[in-house]
Amino acid sequence: MATFMDVHHGMTGITAEDLAAAHQADLAIEKEENVSFKQAWADPDSGTVYCLSEAPSMEAVQRVHERAGHRADEIHPVPLSV
Questions:
Q1: What does the domain layout of the chain look like in residue ranges?
Q2: Torsion of CA 36, 37, 39, 43, to 10 degrees
C-alpha cells in the first residue's frame, strides 16, 4: 500500500462538522476500494481540505472521493515520511 495526500479546493467556510461528515462519507465506502483514510484537515478561510490515505493507487483514492461526493483536485504520492 502506498501513502497519498490529496487536496480539495473551493470549500471556503467548511466547518468542523462539514469536514467530519465528508470524512465519514469516505470511511463508509473506503473498504470497497481497499483504501484507508487516516486523517483530514481543513482551512476554512482558503477553502482547502487535505486528506491522508493509504491505498493501492491514486485512482482508488479518487474513486472513493467521487462516490462520496467530493472529488479531489490533486492527489500526491507521499513516498517518504518520518
A1: 2-77
A2: 160
CA angle 28, 62, 49 (to 5 degrees): 80
CA dist., res. 14 & res. 37, Å (int) = 19
Max CA distance (Å), the chain: 33
Please return the burial class of 18, using the count of CB atoms within 10 Å of its CB with bins 0-12, 13-18 and 19+.
middle
Residue 10, helix vs strand vs coil: coil
pLDDT digits (tens, 9 = 90+) for 24-81: 999 999 999 999 999 999 999 999 999 999 999 999 999 999 999 999 999 999 999 9
CATH number of 2-77: 3.30.70.3090
